[in-house]
């Protein structure tokens, strides 16, 4: 096989024959970066792949052909800790989390539904803010459960707004409590 410049032929990460597609890019520090290359083309590296898209809205917008959607202007970033893990009860422990962008006008009750806190008793389905204080230590912040009137309030009402995580404001870390199915 003769040598072909990499800007003309690429090998896909799933091993299919080369195509004349543009090179794969990944995100690093918020910038597009050309993915690593070898003599055989693109070299997939799991630590450099962008995160998988997670769709938490099970009810897609009812958009007919030719119809657009106007997105909310204010969003916040939520770091949702997986598995109901409570870092304020487990100092120094590692945990997994997923990062979401959510409209500040979203009600906590709807957030809970989108995050799967729908089973069992509404007094067990809730969200609690986790406040990072440093050195692996966390404090328990404000909580809201589906059975409470506060769940009808928006994220912005709780201070989870577009300013969080910017300019010295702490990010929004949340842990979700889920009821047991009966």
Tell me what the structure shows.
Residues 1-12, 15-23, 25-29 and 37-53 have low confidence and may be disordered. The strands form three sheets. A five-stranded mixed sheet has the order 6-5-9-7-8, covered by helices on one side. A two-stranded antiparallel sheet has the order 1-2. The termini are far apart. It has one helix spanning 108-114, and strands at 25-28, 31-34, 37-38, 41-42, 75-81, 97-103, 126-134, 137-145, 172-177. 15% of the residues are buried. The protein is mainly beta and 182 residues long. A hairpin with a 2-residue loop joins strand 7 (126-134) and strand 8.
Search tags:
182 residues; mainly beta; 5-stranded mixed sheet; two-stranded antiparallel ribbon; 9 strands; globular
Topology:
Elements: E1 25-28, E2 31-34, E3 37-38, E4 41-42, E5 75-81, E6 97-103, H1 108-114, E7 126-134, E8 137-145, E9 172-177
Helical fraction? under 10%
- Provide the structure class: mainly beta
Largest sheet: 5 strands, mixed
- Return residue spans where pLDDT drops below 50 for at least 5 consecutive residues: 1-12, 15-23, 25-29, 37-53
Give the overall shape.
Answer: globular
- H/E element sequence: EEEEEEHEEE
Strand content: 25-35%
Radius of gyration: 21 Å
């Amino acid at each position: 096989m003769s040598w072909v410049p990499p800007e003309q032929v690429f090998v896909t990460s799933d091993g299919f024959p080369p195509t004349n597609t543009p090179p794969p890019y990944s995100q690093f520090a918020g910038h597009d970066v050309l993915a690593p290359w070898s003599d055989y083309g693109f070299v997939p590296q799991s630590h450099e792949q962008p995160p998988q898209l997670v769709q938490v809205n099970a009810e897609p917008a009812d958009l007919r052909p030719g119809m657009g959607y106007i997105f909310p202007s204010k969003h916040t970033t939520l770091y949702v800790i997986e598995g109901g893990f409570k870092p304020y009860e487990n100092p120094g422990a590692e945990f997994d989390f997923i990062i979401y962008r959510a409209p500040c006008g979203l009600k906590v009750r709807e957030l809970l539904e989108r995050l799967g806190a729908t089973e069992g008793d509404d007094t067990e389905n809730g969200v609690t803010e986790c406040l990072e204080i440093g050195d692996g230590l966390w404090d328990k912040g404000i909580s809201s459960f589906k059975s409470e009137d506060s769940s009808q309030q928006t994220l912005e009402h709780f201070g989870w707004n577009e300013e969080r995580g910017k300019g010295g404001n702490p990010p929004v870390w949340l842990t979700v409590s889920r009821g047991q199915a009966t």
